[in-house]
Structures are given as C-alpha cells and as structure tokens.
Design brief:
With 468 residues, this protein is an alpha/beta fold. It contains 16 helices and 16 strands. The strands form three sheets. An eight-stranded mixed β-barrel has the order 1-9-8-3-2-12-11-10, surrounded by five helices. Strands 13-16-15-14 form a four-stranded mixed sheet, with helices on one face.
Length: 468
C-alpha cells in the first residue's frame, strides 16, 4: 500500500470528509461544500526552498514565490486552519526547512510517501520511500511499516489502498486499510475509493465503514464534482463550475489550471460545443465567456485594478515620506519598442558621462515587499534621479532612472523618434566593420573589445527590499 504521513494538524480533530488535491480555488470550493480539511497538490521541497513568502494585499493571500516570479503555493486566511501542505521530499533536513517556512500559514504538514509517478520515485520521493529503510525505519510489510511510522510521533496516517505498481483502474484494497486501522492507535485516513465506491456523499460513509478508517480522503471524485461533500446531495454541474470559476478569477488562478479543473468536471461532455470552446480557451477571460460569465470577469478585473492602484498609491506616498528630498523624480517607464535594437537609455547615459569626464553612473535598486516591484535611483555627478513608477524587474527600473536623468539634462536618450545620432551611427559602423572582417576571414573573436564603450554597466549588488 502507499501511505501519506500527515505530521500534525495542530490539535484539530480529523473528520470525514476531506479533499486531497487542489489549488486554492478548488480547496475553497470544497470547504464551501462541506469538506473539513483540504490538501494542496504535492509540492517538491527543493522548489519550495527557493521561494519567498509574500503577502499579496491586492488578493488578500499569502504567496510563496519562486525566483522566476511563479507562484508555487498560494493560500489565504479562510483556509489557514484546515489546509494541509503536502510535500514531496527525500531528505529530512529539507523537509523540516520547508515545514518551518509554511508552518504559520497551514494547519498541517504531509509527507507524500505514496506517489508512484516516475518524476517522484526517480528523485527517491513518494512511493520510493517505502523501500528505503534509511528514510523510514526498516519494515517487512505494510502493517509493520505503519506501526513503525506511528512511533515517530505523527498525528495521523493516510493510506491509499493500492500497491505502488497499481493504478486507479485497479480495485482498492479495503481489507488492507482495515488491517492498518485496527493495528494502530492514531487516526487512519482512507484514500482511493473514488473509482469503486464514492459517487455521492452517502458513499463516503460506506467507504469509511469498509475500511474502519477514522476519516476519508477524496481526490478524483472531488475533482469531478466538489459538491460531493454536500450531505444534501450534488449540485448541478453548471452551478459547480460557475462557483469554481468565481474563485479562480477572484484569486487570479492561472488559466491553464482553471481549464484543467473544468475539463475534469466536464469529462464525457468535453466533445460538446461548450467542451470544445473550453478546450480552445487561451485566457481566464475566454474561459469566463464560455460559461456566460464575461460580466463577472470584467467587474472583478475592475475591482482588482482599483485595489492595485490604491495599494500602489499608498506605497508611493509612504516611499515619498522617507525618501531623500534631493532626488529628481519623473513619472516615466522604459518601453523597448520605442528604441532601436541594442540601444538603451543606460547606454546613452554612460556614453554622456564618459564624454563629460564624469564617473560612470551608479544605480541603487530596491524591491518593494508589497508587490515585488523595483525602483532604481541613479547617481550622476553627485545628483540622484529616479522614476516615481515601480517596475517588474531591476533592469526596467534602472532604464527608467536613466531616462529621468537624460531628460533632466536635456540629453538624447536614443528613442526612434529622435532620429539617428552619433551613438547609433557608431554602433552601425562597428557592426559593418565586424561583417567586413568576417568576410575577409579575419578572427572576429577579438573585436568585441571595440564595443566595450557601449555595453551597459551593471551592478553585481544584491537587490535589497524596502522596509515596511
């Protein structure tokens, strides 16, 4: 059997039923319909350890954000006392570090020792842990394994009633789950009944009795229709999908995941006109249009835009209160479409400083924790310049600061509408010389030194964060 090992639930009584898999919109929907506990999708420890914890004041969420700005895990206050963080790990120290990272935002931590998929087992995670006595004490059979795990101090254990080589189409082994339930004193959570048992709420109790488990964990049946948690019976699928879409829009769920979840709900209806339109959708807005929710999308988008503007304004006021009053400011952004290829304001500013015998420009960049945006201050000839607008990257923020400086000095910044100038002509001459040298068979590796004057100077400094 494959097992999951929830480490703790902060003293919360474990009840039936619960949903095992899902991003934030699906988890919240399951809670609305009656689930007591919800699990996130399995998240790999190495990926989580790269993340920063960010409070998203626009959405009202806590986001764990990877270096590439991708949201790896998103949660909110509504589910804080009932969401279990499911982790893939093959290393105790890494698992502990991740647990400490998220412990203040979740109700429990679960180590996945059941995933049979290759990406998990190849990394010695999931079901691979079951055969590694160094990772989970030596065992001879499933019941003895669970007894040994129980001694580590876990609060509960979830058992998926199939062997690691079996798949959902194979029958679930209720007798083995029952044997485990009877062998240990901690709560046992029965999983794997979607295919054989669980079609509606009353089937949850049937599965629980068959396994003698303390509670029941549901994955696929809950994906097909999350209203399976309703004692009063299933909601029509149209209502369920619309309820789900509202959460997906409200919490800015990526449209590919939203589409996947809706496809899981439609199942045999995927070949209908609506199903085909869903399959063709390439954005959250298009998904909303498929389900006659375009007005809801536009209204919600407008609300978020207003919130974002309000938050940014408050942050800018706060920044201004603590900022050096001698900094020259303008409201500008850098748009690379307005400049020739390989020509930027930073290059122009650097060239101007060299002509005027000034030290090269110095950029100081900070990141705002509120929204992870950047602002840069450039110092030229002992005067500081910056844009009042915050940008999504350090490079864009530095270019904006350079623009402010150039415009204050009345110096060309290289825009297409300024026409050709000495710097662009010099670049063209160098490019032509490079081509001529290549045509004559000369070594073209060295001439890159000729371009040194026009390569942007960049700082290796780490970007600090603005204090809150």
């Amino acid at each position: 059997m494959t097992v999951y090992t929830p480490l703790c639930f902060r003293g919360k009584k474990i009840l039936a039923p619960m949903v095992r898999v899902g991003t934030l919109p699906m988890r919240l929907l399951a809670l609305d319909y009656g689930a007591d506990i919800v699990y996130c999708e399995e998240l790999i420890d190495l990926k989580m350890l790269q993340c920063k914890r960010v409070v998203n004041e626009v959405l009202g969420t806590v986001d764990f954000v990877a270096p590439n700005e991708r949201i790896i895990f998103r949660t909110c206050e509504r589910e804080r006392h009932c969401v279990v963080f499911q982790m893939g790990s093959a290393d105790a120290e890494r698992a502990l570090a991740v647990a400490k990272l998220v412990e203040g935002d979740v109700a429990g931590i679960d180590i996945n020792m059941g995933c049979p998929k290759e990406y998990s087992t190849k990394a010695s995670m999931g079901a691979a842990l079951l055969s590694d006595p160094d990772k989970i004490e030596s065992v001879e059979d499933t019941v003895n394994l669970v007894k040994r795990i129980e001694k580590t101090g876990i609060a509960a254990i979830a058992v998926h009633g199939r062997k690691k080589e079996e798949r959902p189409q194979h029958p679930v082994h209720c007798d083995v789950i029952r044997a485990i339930s009877e062998a240990v004193s901690i709560p046992v959570i029965a999983n794997g009944g979607s295919h054989d048992f669980i079609k509606e709420y009353k089937d949850i109790e049937t599965f629980q009795k068959a396994t003698a488990a303390s509670s029941v964990m549901i994955a696929r049946a809950a994906m097909w229709n999350p209203s399976i948690f309703r004692k009063e019976g299933l909601f029509p699928l149209k209502k369920v999908m619309q309820d789900y879409i509202k959460y997906a829009v409200r919490y800015d769920n990526h449209y590919t995941n939203t589409k996947y979840c809706l496809c899981q709900m439609l199942r045999e209806q995927l070949e209908t006109p609506q199903g085909k339109k869903l399959h063709a959708a390439q954005s959250t807005q298009e998904i909303c249009e498929v389900f006659e929710m375009a007005d809801f999308y536009e209204e919600t988008a407008a609300i978020f835009e207003a919130k974002k503007t309000s938050v940014e304004t408050e942050a800018e006021v706060e920044d201004d209160e603590v900022e050096d009053p001698d900094v020259i400011k303008m409201s500008v952004r850098f748009d690379k479409r307005e400049y020739p290829p390989q020509i930027t304001p930073k290059m122009y500013l650097l060239e101007w400083c060299r002509k005027e015998k000034h030290p090269q420009p110095v950029y100081e960049t900070v990141q705002r924790p509120l929204d992870r945006l950047f602002c840069s201050v450039v110092t030229v000839a002992e005067q500081k310049y910056r844009s009042t607008l915050w940008d999504k990257s350090k490079k864009l923020a530095e270019q904006a600061a350079a623009i402010v400086c150039l415009r204050t000095l009345g110096v060309p910044e290289g825009k297409l509408d300024e026409g050709e100038n000495d710097l662009i002509n010099k670049r063209k001459r160098e490019d032509q010389d490079h081509l001529n040298n290549r045509d004559h068979g000369e070594d073209v590796a060295e001439p890159s030194l000729k371009k040194a004057n026009f390569i942007e100077e960049t700082s290796d400094m780490n970007v600090p964060k603005m204090p809150r």
